[in-house]
Amino acid sequence: MPLILKKRLITALLLLFFTAAGCGTQSNTGLPQPHKTVSSEAVSPIDFIENRLEGLETAKKERKPALLFFAIPNNAGSQKMLETAFGDAEVRQLAKSFICIRIDGIQDSAYCETLGVRGFPTVVLANSNGSEIQRLTGRQSPDQLAVQMHVVLQTVAMRSGGTVL
User: Fold this and answer.
1) How many independent structural domains does the chain possess?
2) Which terminal Cβ of the chain has fewer Cβ within 10 Å, N or C?
């Protein structure tokens, strides 16, 4: 194989790797959006709590597991997941058993760093105390997300002595 083709192949593989790992996905083309208590965007039929602390406190108070959706504005993967996975009927139904919190990866970058969130979108499923049970990195299909949501609900029910759904 000629040297120029080897270099192009290596460059293409590195580009693919860094894109899949979430590097370069932050888009600073828009201004940061203000924090709202509950999202009213038409993109996602799920009402996400936009304030992380309020969401985690609500999960604790209501004794419900938390679904933390780490996304960044103007990121194609984050937007597509909002439209597809969170738009799915089964996922919407399962989301009623969670406190759903959307975390802006730019505005809350310190929290992302604390949890080791390096790529977007990322979903962290946690118990009502905020302890991580499952992490999903990258865009998930509705089926992938629904399966993991079921697993977390079963795990939480078993740990609390409740009924496994």
Assistant:
1) 1
2) N
Task: Give the range of the structural domain holding residue 130, as residue numbers without chain letter.
Answer: 37-160
**Strand ranges for the chain from DSSP E:** 66-71, 99-104, 122-126, 132-137
Q: Is residue 58 in some structural domain? A: yes
Please state the pTM of the whole predicted model.
0.71
Among 101, 116, 110, residue whose Cα is nearest residue 56:
101
Per-residue pLDDT of the chain (165 residues; tens, 9 = 90+): 555 544 454 544 434 333 344 433 343 333 333 333 334 343 457 999 999 999 999 999 999 999 999 999 999 999 999 999 999 999 999 999 999 999 999 999 999 999 999 999 999 999 999 999 999 999 999 999 999 999 999 999 888 765 444
Which of 37, 34, 25, 45 is closest to 117 using CA atoms? 25
136 part of a folded domain: yes
Distance between CA atoms of residues 100 and 48, nearest Å: 5
Residue 28 lies in a domain: no
Distance CA 9, CA 24 (A): 20
